[in-house]
Structures are given as C-alpha cells and as structure tokens.
Amino acid sequence: MSGHGDPIPMKSRKGGPLAGVAEVPGDKSISHRALILGALSVGRTEITGLLEGQDVLDTAKAMRAFGATVTRHGPGEWSVEGVGVGGFAEPADVIDCGNSGTGVRLIMGCMASSPISATFTGDASLRKRPMGRVTDPLALFGARAYGRAGGRLPMTIVGAAEPVPVSYTTPMASAQVKSAVLLAGLNAPGQTVVIEKVPTRDHTERMLKGFGAEITVEATPEGNRITLQGQPELTAQRVAVPRDPSSAAFPVCAALLVPGSDILVPGVSQNPTRNGLFLTLRDMGADIEFLNPREEGGEPVADLRVRYSELTGIDVAPERASSQIDEYPVLSVVAACARGTTVMRGVHELRVKESDRIDAMARGLEACGVRVEEDDDTLIVHGMGPGGVPGGATCATHIDHRIAMSFLILGLAAQAPIAVDDGSPIATSFPVFEELMAGLGAVIERG
Ligand SMILES: O=C(O)C1=C[C@@H](OP(=O)(O)O)[C@@H](O)[C@H](O)C1
Ligand SMILES: C=C(OP(=O)(O)O)C(=O)O
C-alpha cells in the first residue's frame, strides 16, 4: 500500500526582514494537464517549467503505465510521446497517485471511456478522499467503479467499451470533476457538455483548445456551458508552464507578515480563476504591485512586488472561494496576524482536500493562541494584530502540504517558534520551498 515516507518534523521562527526574488516552481494543475494531454496526443509534446513535485511525478509515471513515452531531459524539461485519443493501453499494475486528488481524478476521467480497466490507489490521505464525485458522472459514459465503502480508493475503474457522450451539471464547484468529465468525453462519439454553476480553474478547457480539440465555453443563466466534440485528433504541443500562484502564496504572505520585508515574485499566473488570494490580500490592505503584466504559455502572468503591510480582517465572500480554494490555509494565517476578524464563507470544499483543512487550521491556530470559530461551511479567525500571535506550539499537518507550509509561515511572524509534526508532504507541490524561503532570509529548519 502506498505510504508517504518518514515524517520530517520542521520549525520556523522570527528573524529579519525578507528580501530578494522568489522564483516559485511551475503550476501544479497545468503540469498534470500537460502530461495527460501530451499522452492523449499524436506526436511529441515538449514541456518546459514542469513542476517536479511528487504529485506530478506520479502522474508522469501513470502516463507511462497507460502507454505514453514520458522523458525528462533536464530540470522542468520533459517530453511526452502520446498514444492519441482512444489509444491508452491497459496498465499492468496498480496506478499509485500518491497524495494527488487532481492526478487520480483526471486520470480516471481519461481512461473511463476506453475498453480497459485500471486499479487506482494513493497514500493514507488520498485513500480517505471521495471519488464518487467523479465515478458518478463517469458511470453515465458507461464506466463502472468498484472501490471501498464511501467511494474510496483503492478502486478499479472498468472503462466503457462503447462510451456514449454525456451532459452533466457539476453538483459542486470542482475543476477536477469538470475535467474528468471532459477528458472522458474525448473518447465518446458526439458532444459532451459540462455545465458549472460556479466557474472553476479553466486550464483543461484552455489546454484542450491549444491541443486542437473543438471546445466552446458559453456563459448562460445556469452558469458556464462547456461543449466538447468527441474523438478529436489532439496534436502534440509545446507547453511553457507558468509559475504556480498557489505556491507563490507562501512567500507573498510571508513578506506581508514579516516587518520590513520587500520581495519580488516574478511570472506568477494571474488567470482570473486562480488569482483570488491576491485580490483578497489587497482588500485586507496588502501592498502588492502587479508589475509587467503579460501572456506566457497562454496564461496571463505578472511579477508581484510585495512589501510588509499592516492588514485588517475582512468578510471574504463565498464568490471568492473557487479562485483561491487552495489558499485558505495560508489566508487564515494572514488573518491571525491582521487586526480584527476575518470571516471566510462558502469554504465547505476545504473539508475534502488532503486533510479537512478547516479543522486542521482551526486546531493549529488555537494551539498557537488564536481564537477561531467554525461551522461546516465557514471559518472565522479573530486576528491578533501585527506581532500578536503567541505561537510556541507544534501543529499537526495530517499529510497536507498546504497545512505544513501555512504554519511554517506563521512561525516567521509569531512571538515564539512554531513546529509542524511532518513537513514531508511539502514535496508534493513545492519541493524547493525550504531553499526558496531560506534564500529570502526566512528561518525554517528541520528537526
Ligand atoms: O483541477 C485542479 O488542478 C485542482 C482543482 C481543485 O480541486 P477541486 O476540483 O476538488 O476543487 C484544487 O483544490 C486542486 O489543488 C487542483
Ligand atoms: C487540493 C490540492 O491538491 P489535490 O486535490 O490535487 O490533491 C492542493 O494542492 O491544495
């Protein structure tokens, strides 16, 4: 059974101001999709800036298991020789997606409309996460799923021998569910339609178009209506992966919280389905400048100049949730250091991430001396003002990279050091986190 290795205890503490340039790695969502669409294309896709985090490495391995040739040429430089839509081979062994919800759900989608079977598993975190949200729509194509109770991994998907196209309204705001349906739709004859009431990250739609699929997105009163023509020939592309806004969030928030800091975070994707955190931080009074806006790899990007700021708590509307869904853990750390109360509404989806992120943040913040309230869909943090968080606790990370990094950022601004029980999951999305933060002058240590 898949594990996640030995725990790596880590801690952080107050030091001098942060300064310098933080070149964060490639976007995780786009990296998964570049490998998957490369595998479903004809020809050789060349990728630069690929995130070499464990989540993405697990997807690369899975694409090989389905028959693609995936090669690493140098740091972030990869190529994929694809098998074409409908060309997936049946894997000879279990597909282990490690810690990655995106990996397992998107891969289930792209094999579910082929006449092959595959068994999926993951680490102890992924084995707790619900898969019914993708296997329900995949059943409409004709695929069958056999998993543990509650739709959990390990799970075998028996792909549809004669897939039919599907029209599906996603019941929750989830780019993973939307993407799984679109990827299954690739190998079904006719039009597959996905309607999403709330817009979510749109990398699958952008990249499918880039690889030559016929796909349209129409704003309707019910929400975005995405129509994909099945059985296209996807053509290999060059993909330049922009830097990950979800990773940029950590140095950005650290600079806002550590007095005297002034940093530059270049080339960060400003895709409007991903940039919610930066807008929310500005609403709280953050000094963030968006310099040199431009397009890179089909995504809008900017260089972020971030300076220490005294922040004020705000009411964060549920409409912001999907464009900053992975940033709530670090936002709640920022909220703890702001003056006044921050109310984060519409955040129920956080309960089914790598951990129950509402619970993990609430318990860790309380241990650090911060007053927190929560209900199923809301997290409220009573800010203690600049320099006001006592800290001095060890926080449990629950095999969740974003929880680990968030508490290590809080330790840089708290009165006493903060420890985390296990920083090893950081390597799933941000393998150079420690080096990058040290380069800015942050004191983050192992042990
Ligand atoms: O499609 C993607 O790449 C992702 C979608 C989001 O998950 P949901 O689809 O569950 O909201 C996000 O939390 C995850 O980190 C990446
Ligand atoms: C939720 C996340 O990832 P995934 O769902 O791919 O495991 C994340 O990276 O914060």
UniProtKB/TrEMBL annotation:
Protein name: 3-phosphoshikimate 1-carboxyvinyltransferase
Function as written in the Swiss-Prot or TrEMBL entry: Catalyzes the transfer of the enolpyruvyl moiety of phosphoenolpyruvate (PEP) to the 5-hydroxyl of shikimate-3-phosphate (S3P) to produce enolpyruvyl shikimate-3-phosphate and inorganic phosphate.
Region Disordered: start-end pairs: 1-23
Key word Nucleotidyltransferase present: no
Domain of life: Bacteria
Known pathway: Metabolic intermediate biosynthesis; chorismate biosynthesis; chorismate from D-erythrose 4-phosphate and phosphoenolpyruvate: step 6/7
Family recorded in the similarity comment: Belongs to the EPSP synthase family.
GO cellular-component term (any): cytoplasm
Keyword set, alphabetical order: Amino-acid biosynthesis, Aromatic amino acid biosynthesis, Cytoplasm, Transferase
Reactions catalysed: 3-phosphoshikimate + phosphoenolpyruvate = 5-O-(1-carboxyvinyl)-3-phosphoshikimate + phosphate
Assembly behavior: Monomer.
Primary gene name: aroA
Source species: Rhodobacter xanthinilyticus
